[in-house]
Amino acid sequence: MELTDIVGILSRLIHISSAVTLLGGLLFARQVLVAVGQTDLIARYSTAMQAAIAGLLLSGLYNLLTKAALPKGYHAIFGIKFLLALHVFAVALLLPKADAAKRARSLTGILVSGGLILALSAYLRYLTLNP
Questions:
Q1: In the chain, where are the structural domains located?
Q2: Three-class SS of 13-47
Q3: Which of 69, 79, 89, 93 is most buried (CB neighbours < 10 A)?
């Protein structure tokens, strides 16, 4: 196994674990913290959110730049995925400053976008494995 293979695996690991951290924490916030009226606790999660966002941006950029030949349509789907990701990042970073009612709506929107991102990611993976 070459060094580039190891870096590629680590980058993929960082990307997936950052996505799990970000969306998992936001899902918990939406399903549990909103239900018990404790959305103010989201502020404690903001450092982990910021780290996950940084991990997603850096590893995603690395993963994109190191892909060899991309199939037709890949960039269009990736562009949609990236715009949805920017929506998730922006709203997640603004979440601790929002009032409680807006937090619940914002979390719902983030989770819908996050689900779409996961679906697009699965499709992009399919495209690269089946050109």
A1: 3-129
A2: HHHHHHHHHHHHHHHHHHHHHCCCCCHHHHHHHHH
A3: 89
Q: Is 98 exposed, middle or buried (0-12, 13-18, 19+ CB in 10 A)?
A: middle
Q: Is the pLDDT assigned to residue 130 strictly greater than 90?
A: no
Q: Are 8 and 64 spatial neighbours (Cβ–Cβ below 8 Å)?
A: no
- Taking the model in full, what pTM does it have? 0.90
**35-47 pLDDT, tens digit each:** 898 888 888 999 9
Residues ≥6 apart with Cβ < 8 Å to 8: 63, 66
27: Cα separation from own chain's centroid: 12
